[in-house]
Amino acid sequence: MKAHGALTAQSIAAAAQTLARQDSSLADVLRQLGPPPTWKRSGTFATLVRIILEQQVSLDSAKATYDRIRAACGGQLRADLLADFSVDQIRALGVTRQKTRYILALRDEVLTGSFSPRRLAYQTDDIVREQITARLGMGDWTADIYLILALMRPDVLPVGDLAFVKGLSEMDCVEYCSAEELHVRAENWRPFRSVAVRMVWQQYVYNRGRKIP
């Protein structure tokens, strides 16, 4: 058994209906676009590497770099397949020096067994956050994205995610300038804040004619 029930397409759709009844901005999203897509990533080392690559760059750019690393590993991205890669080899794939440090530190911790992404599925949100933010180069944003997309947790609010903050500001025609303001705005979304975030993302990418890769 996992520590908490993960969201499914059905529970996301049901939660979106609940949210729409109590939030007019989200009601507009649901009316225009329907339930949010079931964006999901695997609960693995590869997903954490991808989130590291996404720090402070576009999703498309990060995905291109991620795909190069995965191809260099033979089509799969696992810590053991990355075991013999040097700093220079990772850098040659288009990874910054700083992110190379983060990826190789994560690789080493997974290989030694001191950290296991797969075990996170059995932990509470708070423990998952503690485990991820204890890793080099990973903060609350990394933990939030992993909780929402890899573990499909229902009640996470990524106040450091620029797409969410900008998307919500556009939806409400209000500029949110602090985490506190975002927490107050999202209070009535509990216990489905992750679903509300997905709806904001849905509107954000739709407005730009894009999709989350």
UniProtKB/TrEMBL annotation:
Pfam families: HhH-GPD (PF00730). GO terms for molecular function: alkylated DNA binding; DNA-3-methyladenine glycosylase activity; DNA-7-methylguanine glycosylase activity. One of its GO terms (biological process) is base-excision repair, AP site formation. InterPro entries: Alkylbase_DNA_Glycosylase/TA, DNA_glycosylase, HhH-GPD_domain. It is an enzyme of class 3 (hydrolase). It catalyses: Hydrolysis of alkylated DNA, releasing 3-methyladenine, 3-methylguanine, 7-methylguanine and 7-methyladenine. Keywords: DNA damage, DNA repair. It comes from the Bacteria. GO terms for cellular component: cytoplasm; protein-DNA complex. Its EC number is 3.2.2.21. CDD domains: ENDO3c. Residues 53-205 form the HhH-GPD domain. This is DNA-3-methyladenine glycosylase II. It comes from Stieleria varia.
